[in-house]
């Protein structure tokens, strides 16, 4: 493919996502519970027939619905994934991209010029805009919940990969700092039947994590409490402290202090396990952290880390030089508490 062809693909690449966003904005998959004449569906969704027919044609070419020009039906798997209700729903993931990532990213050039996050672009933000993105999010509990669910989805497979990569068979207590919706912890609990996990995060994240842990029958081994990574946790003598895709959100000095708190939680010889998408040490790639770095610039003001950078910070916080295991799904950084 020529560079010109690549540019053509890139600049038009947003259109399929916009089709999906429109379908979820209209709650099309919630309404489409049976094969339905397009006129009936248009009446139910308060749209024009012509506009809805155009949308359904596009969705049909993408494999989400079947449409013969007169009647439309949802592909069953698509309805399960895109209707708002249901255990398999990805509606929160789509919402996260549509309302939490896309608006600040449309202001990416301003973020590059100013070095500041563009959370004022969020359609749900209230005046006066909070000083930081996370302070603004805290005003909107449903937005925090959507973020937590989306991050949980993006972390599927990480816990299973940790269990495959590291020998944690002797571990009895793992502290999960910034646990989010708890998917990494649940995968570890399923893989390691003797393991107990103590997770901490904000109250909205804790609510999601508790719901999902209870649904899998894991609450006897999975304690989840409100807490703040910057203030430590009320646990001692843990075998492992884990951070899963949260350290990149904090500036360097706060990261080192968070790691020092983690060291105090660990027993002598305990380890810290950090799951992140790392730059190469020269910060010239790979592509995924380079792109995520720009997302963080626009949305949170964080930045993706490099392995050598994180290694220096771990040593400064009282850990041994780390071992790095490259992903997928993410890279793992493992370091022991120094005596």
Description:
The chain is built from 16 helices and ten strands. The protein has three domains: 72 residues, Orthogonal Bundle (Arc Repressor Mutant, subunit A), CATH 1.10.10; 61 residues, no CATH class; 184 residues, Rossmann fold, CATH 3.40.50. The model has no long low-confidence stretch (mean pLDDT 96). α7 packs across α15 and α8 crosses α15. The longest helix is centred in the first third of the chain and has 15 residues. α12 links the parallel β4 and β5. The protein is an alpha/beta fold and 339 residues long. Helices cover 48% and strands 15% of the residues.
How do you describe this structure in short?
The protein is α/β, with parallel strands linked by helices.
Strand arrangement in the largest pleated sheet: 6-5-4-7-8-10-9
- The parts where pLDDT drops under 50 for at least 5 residues are none
- Give the helices and strands as they follow along the chain: HHHEHHEEHHHHHHEHEHEEHEHHEE
Query: How far apart are the termini?
Result: 55 Å
For the report, how would you describe the main beta sheet?
Answer: 7 strands, mixed
Give the number of domains.
3
Output the CATH topology of the largest domain. Rossmann fold
Report the CATH architecture of the largest domain: 3-Layer(aba) Sandwich
How much strand content do the residues show? 15-25%
Helix content: 40-55%
Give the C-level CATH assignment of the largest domain. Answer: Alpha Beta
Mean pLDDT: 96
- Whole-angstrom Rg: 22 Å
Instruction: Please name the fourth-level CATH homologous superfamily of the largest domain.
Output: Vaccinia Virus protein VP39
Number of helical regions: 16
Secondary-structure class = alpha/beta
Bulk shape: globular
Q: Give the tally of β-strands.
A: 10
